Amino acid sequence: MNSSYPSALLENAVNEFARLPGIGRKTALRLVLHLLRQEEEKVTHFAETILKMRREITYCTLCHNISDTTVCSICNDATRDRSVVCVVENVKEVMAIEKTVQYSGLYHVLGGIISPIDGIGPSNLEIGSLEERVKRGEIREVILALSATMEGDTTNFYIYRRLQAYPVKVSIIARGVSIGDEIEYADEVTLGRSILNRTPFDESYKLMSK
Predict the structure, then answer these.
(1) Which of 173, 198, 188 is nearest to 101 (CA)?
(2) CA 39 to CA 45: how far, in whole Å?
(3) By the 8 A CB rule, do 104 and 198 touch?
(4) CATH class for domain 59-209?
(5) What is the distance between the alpha carbons of residues 28 and 13, in angstroms, rounded to a whole number?
(6) Are 72 and 66 in contact (CB under 8 A)?
(7) What secondary structure, in 3-state letters, does the chain show?
(8) What's residue 192's pLDDT?
(9) Is the pLDDT assigned to residue 15 strictly greater than 50?
(10) Given CA atoms 89, 95, 100, 103 in this order, what sign does their dihedral have?
(11) Rounded-to-integer distance, Cα 140 and Cα 111, Å
């Protein structure tokens, strides 16, 4: 066996852990060796938990957030303001905004942003379903909370144009989140203030166009 590993099984396990984002081979080896030191019952429970998540987790049929049921706990919460919808790129942004405890409306998860270089266009995102929600007339404000990048701004503008035909206010979070920053990495205070100090998209677009 032409390998520095004493076991092919060990090496295979390390290879799989190393596939995870942010996990190098040294960290992967440390994790695998940790599991080897645990009782088999604990490792079995660990593996079954991962498999159960992968097999049973679903997405909310309304907002596309990750959920254990067909409608997520946020959309099911009667205390939320159902007239306001915050549009985010993915589930991580929902979690980040929820941590601020500054927002009480609903969400809409796009599942990405428009990026021609990556082959991602409007049809690959949940923009059509957002328009359908607005079309039903229950939403009075759509807050665009996408990352302050070129792709994020492109997606913001596309959604704004798409919703212009409807009597709905389209706003954008304040630029407390710096250009190029990802929403999920913004601190809670900054992100919370950015949501509270949101501005109408048309005003923001005029400023960005100057």
Answers:
(1) 188
(2) 10
(3) no
(4) alpha beta
(5) 8
(6) yes
(7) CCCCCCCHHHHHHHHHHCCCCCCCHHHHHHHHHHHHHCCHHHHHHHHHHHHHHHHHCEECCCCCCEECCCCCHHHHCCCCEEEEEEEECCHHHHHHHHHHCCCCEEEEECCCCCEHHHCECHHHCCHHHHHHHHHCCCCCEEEECCCCCHHHHHHHHHHHHHHCCCCCEEEECCCCCCCCCCHHHCCHHHHHHHHHCCEEHHHHHHHHHC
(8) 74
(9) yes
(10) positive
(11) 23
Mean per-residue pLDDT of the chain: 89
Nearest one of 173, 123, 128 to 152, comparing CA atoms: 173
User: Token match 């609903």: residue?
Assistant: 106
Which CATH code for domain 8-56?
1.10.8.420
Per-residue CA distances from 52 to 35, 55, 112 (Å): 19, 5, 25
Domain with CATH 1.10.8.420 in the chain: 8-56
Give residue-wise pLDDT tens across range 84-125.
999 999 999 999 899 888 899 999 999 999 999 999 999 999
Residues of each domain in the chain carrying CATH 3.40.1360.10: 59-209
Residue 65's closest CA among 39, 101, 96, 35?
A: 96
